[in-house]
## 1
Amino acid sequence: MNEKEFKKAIDHYRSLIDKEMANEKVIDGKFVGPKKLTKKDKIDLEDIIHPDRPFLSKDAPEDLDSLYVTTFRVGNLKKPEVLTKAGYGTDVIGGIEFGSNLVKTGLIESVDDIAPFLAKYKIGILDLFREEEVEDGKKLDIRVYECIDCAGMPNIGEPVCYFETGMLIGILSELTGKEVFAEELRCWTSGYSCCQFDVDIKETKKGLDG
Ligand SMILES: [Zn+2]
């Protein structure tokens, strides 16, 4: 994806998400976007085979993008159903290890490398929407559009991108040497057209108290 296309995607999704966030609700303490809510506990096969990725699919011939995205998602079904929710913790840890290894092996060398890497491997389109200094460090509002895990999935009332949450923690903590916390507050599976992460980079160094 070239720079012009990338910028076009960011502009498109920023205005779309603006509208969605203006029409969101808070249900049981969770943000739920305006897409129709489907009452189900889990995502099934029919849900994962229709990714919605107009920008990332542009340089893939025919429907190749939906094929490799589906292949990736089928990998998530390796967990037995009873473990689907209990497995979220391991997804976060796996993501942290993956993210940290991206930095250790030099595939990502700086914060500026993150978005090009994610676009190249078609994991998603990363938008550092806001960055602010707070008393104990930094707060980031990171959005990922056309996420390989959730783009096009139904609104089941809660986010599911635990691997990506971990990946952001792993990359940012390895790059900064600081303690990083991240939470996905909005997702395709909670009614939006993006994943939105609240990220805290704490001033205290990793492993130190206080
Ligand atoms: Zn998501």
## 2
Amino acid sequence: MGVILEVKNLTKKFGGLTAVNDFSFEIKRGEFIGLIGPNGAGKTTVFNLISGFEKPSSGRIRFNGIDITGMKPYKIVNLGIARTFQLVRSFKYLSLLDNITVSCLSKRGKEVSKKTGTDNYASSILASVGLIDKARIPPIILPHGDLRKLQIGKAVGTNPELLLLDEPFSGLSFEEQLGITDLIKKLHADGVTIFITGHVLRELMTLVPRVIAMHQGKFIADGPPVQVANNKIVLEAYLGRGVKIA
Ligand SMILES: Nc1ncnc2c1ncn2[C@@H]1O[C@H](COP(=O)(O)OP(=O)(O)O)[C@@H](O)[C@H]1O
Ligand SMILES: [Mg+2]
């Protein structure tokens, strides 16, 4: 398996606060990997830097060998990285089908929709996220779990090689979490490399074979979830903030 993402000495400062501090790691093509750490650890900032929503203060990010450091988000999407947001975003007054269609019209989305037809492509994605019955309604009347599915569908419409999922389980009921888990597993089985954040260790423990842990912007551990969860610094980071780990 070749390296799909290489992050080297990544640092992001917001004034006097170093949100990401000399952070380095690699992800191999086809991996299913988690990024964990308590609230405020810097997880979302790492995703913002990879997806171009923030520019790093220093360090490099390479995707498929291409230096994407500081590139605009749309260029990064066109190279094959899609992301979802911790807070759900969608086009409120478009139907669910049209929400997905917008992504299917992106550069990489078009590579598929040219062959199958945009409507067919968008419908197949909507079906794969379990929302085809709601194709004609706008997202404003959807429950939170469905909005999360829509958000993942919108990311999938850009035909990504690497999908960044920022806290896809937060605020969901247990049943909704199971639905999203199945969906993410299916995407990974289809060949998409998945990088997923969580601040509750338990949510990622049984899902991914590898997690990277961070705390106060710094790398602290990398390995199988059980091993990382028992790492002394990881335990202190979590227990110090009173977050449950099991
Ligand atoms: N745009 C910003 N301006 C100032 N501080 C920020 C900004 N974004 C994040 N931070 C700070 O950076 C730190 C890491 O935040 P974040 O990446 O959101 O952590 P996490 O996703 O792990 O909860 C926090 O202290 C947060 O307040
Ligand atoms: Mg976050």
